[in-house]
Amino acid sequence: MIRIKARAPTVRAASLPMLWGALAVAYKFGCPLSTQEGLGARIAGSVVFFAVGTGLMVHVRRALLRELRLARRAARAAQSVVLRPLPPRLDGLGVAAAQLSADRGASVGGDLYEAVATEYGVRVVMGDVRGHGLAALGTVAALLGGFREAAHDEARLDDVLRRLERTLARHLRERARAEHPSTGGTADHDNPVAEEFVTVLLLEIGRDGALSALNCGHPWPYRLTGTAVEPLARVEPLPPLGPFPLPADLAPRRCAPLRPAESLVLFTDGAQDARDARGRFFALPDALRAVVRDRPASPQGVLRDLFTALLRHTGGTPADDVALLVLRDEREPTPTAREAAARPATTTHG
């Protein structure tokens, strides 16, 4: 049954060109006009062959459009499996994330993100694979698979990053072996795979709001505190994963704790590098200030308003993939020692 259904479109696709061809042959050998030399016969012949050519072109166009629709559908299905939707709430944190791909033909991008709740806190990764489209999907899948395991297995955030480095190196070796068998899987300088790199940002948010970060070539997130918008850190990140090994002394950066009602906005460089028709860059901090100016915004609200502003700025056609991930601390505030001491004592009467 499955085999018949799979072959049926092929038979139907081949039947129409055969019909047009049969029509041309029947005219050539079966119609008396085809053997005459008059002007009317020539016009009739031209009309017949023009109709045959037009029919074949229309058929080819429809076939190509059908194949394109199938490719887009397969790409969307593959991306939905690799880049899973995040839950709206994760261990007391509100979460919202989405990706906008610049590759309209494949509808997939080279950006990656994930957030998982572990015994060490909520661990988050955001990255950007060099390039976009189907070519980058394999690297995205390898890194996300490595992160989902390492986030639970490794007690230290720097060991999670080292696992990702090994995962990327192994993936690039296998890719080099498949694409360039003559190299034997070695990523030498003449191998195009040796030029691949990935920017990676790792965050760890404890249940008390303690925040640690490791950054390899990725833009720092923005922290939203009320109406204030500030970068999470202002130091230079490490080089991206791939071209250079991680330093031997690798320690996560301790950031100010994430407090209740504060948010973090993670993004890929496609957001801050987006340009309008006049070449002006998208002002991401200004857009964030506009989002939180009048009201405390939910993660879904921040995501929606940012994408709306970005599409308006680029005219609906961003030049690069864009991924956004918003985390908001929705835990109840913990009373300080002074507030606890100021509370009236509760007495019981026997």
What brief labels describe this structure?
single chain, 350 residues, alpha+beta, Phosphatase 2c, domain 1, six-stranded antiparallel β-sheet, 8 helices
Care to describe what's here?
This protein is an alpha+beta fold and 350 residues long. The chain folds into two domains: 2-75; 83-329, PPM-type phosphatase domain (Phosphatase 2c, domain 1), CATH 3.60.40.10. Helices cover 43% and strands 19% of the residues. It contains eight helices and eleven strands. The protein has helices at 2-30, 39-82, 134-153, 157-179, 269-272, 284-292, 299-314, 337-342; strands spanning 89-90, 93-100, 111-118, 121-129, 198-205, 211-216, 222-225, 228-231, 253-255, 263-267, 322-329. The strands form two sheets. The protein has a six-stranded antiparallel sheet. A five-stranded antiparallel sheet has the order 3-4-5-6-9, with helices on one face. The longest helix is centred in the N-terminal third of the chain and has 44 residues, at 39-82.
